[in-house]
Specification:
Radius of gyration: 16 Å
Mean pLDDT: 84
Order of helices and strands: EHHHHEHHHH
Distance between the termini: 33 Å
Helix content: 55-70%
Low-confidence stretches: 70-78
Structural class: mainly alpha
Strand content: under 5%
Number of helices: 8
Strand order of the largest sheet: 1-2
Shape: globular
Largest sheet: 2 strands, antiparallel
Length: 154
């Protein structure tokens, strides 16, 4: 994780403007600075007061993403779910363990808990579909998409 480079996502750029999430000054500075030009370890050493947990929080909120996704990452080719925050929160917490297994499902539920707004939860929902596709296959992923009312892009 520390040897990878990260970039701000659309949600990250929106958060910089909106300042909707509660973040420490150092964490917000880290979000402002990340641009894909340096590794995570370099950014953590440059931005005073930041730790690995700050970077993990930014990732969990969908504010930053790996600049060079690995070969095992699955590109997400879906629109966002039209469900509201409560509906999407409920779906993800109820079904994470069912579709991803005990450990990955538990980790997903923890990430759902960290999502502070609908945009972050929708980004996590897209990642959930991608992980289900990787773990269970395309047929099950399509069932999850239908349950979340997601329509695939052409």
């Amino acid at each position: 994780m520390l040897d990878r480079t990260y970039v701000k996502t659309e949600a990250g750029r929106a958060e910089i403007k909106a300042r909707g999430l509660t973040m420490s000054r150092s964490m917000r500075n880290l979000l402002l600075m990340i641009d894909g030009g340096k590794t995570a370890a370099q950014w953590l050493s440059l931005v005073q007061g930041t730790v690995l947990a700050d970077l993990e929080y930014l990732m969990a909120q969908g504010l930053i993403a790996d600049a060079r996704p690995s070969a095992v990452d699955i590109p997400v080719e879906v629109d966002v779910s039209p469900l509201d925050y409560a509906q999407l929160y409920g779906f993800l917490t109820r079904h994470a363990k069912q579709y991803l297994g005990l450990m990955k499902g538990y980790k997903m539920v923890l990430e759902v808990e960290r999502c502070g707004d609908l945009a972050a939860l929708r980004a996590l929902g897209q990642r959930f579909v991608a992980e289900v596709q990787q773990a269970q296959g395309e047929v099950v992923a399509d069932q999850v998409r239908r349950a979340m009312s997601i329509i695939r892009n052409p």
